[in-house]
Fold this sequence. Notes:
The protein is mainly beta. About 15% of the residues lie in helices and about 40% in strands. It has one domain: Kelch-type beta propeller (Neuraminidase), CATH 2.120.10.80. It has one helix at about 155-180; strands spanning about 1-5, 5-10, 15, 20, 25, 30-35, 45-50, 55-60, 70-75, 80-85, 95-100, 100-105, 110-115, 120-125, 135, 140-145, 150. The relative contact order is 0.12.
Amino acid sequence: MASFQGKIWAVGGCDAWNPLSSVEVYDPSSNSWRFGPPLNSARRGCGLADRGDGLLHVVGGSDGTQSLCTTEVLDPRVNLWAAGPNLTACRVNVSCTVADGKLWAVGGFSGERISQGINGMAFRSLVPLCISGKMFLNTIEYLDLQRDEWTTYVSTDKEEEVRQQSDEEEANKEEEAGRPDTP
């Protein structure tokens, strides 16, 4: 749920654990509800935030069988949801907010759990989200709204180092793309 354009938006959710693609919008000035444009993908446990640029962003969640890395963006001018950039980690029950020109996705869980394997050795397996023992995330990532790309957050000292490495990798890709193929 999020505040967007002076209204309260409830997006996705579930009915008896079945994920929904519905969107409901409450207008406090008229004390009334209406349906908004449905999501492209049904999801529960998703994050939702007003990006501050006239767009509404839904993040992650679960489709009932797996955690989602996908996002959707609502442009109210066309009243449709469009696919947004994928998260770096799939997240259910994620919290979202916008600060410092970035959309932040914090915490949640991945749907992954630690299981006891042969002779008590631990191993990881993907399981339905309703089984206890879920792997809770202690990570944060952000969407740079200018670059439209998710990045895992690291400390300020490391962030500059990671950004420089990313810029160098991008420059190398562009350089390789500009080279003609030679036999």
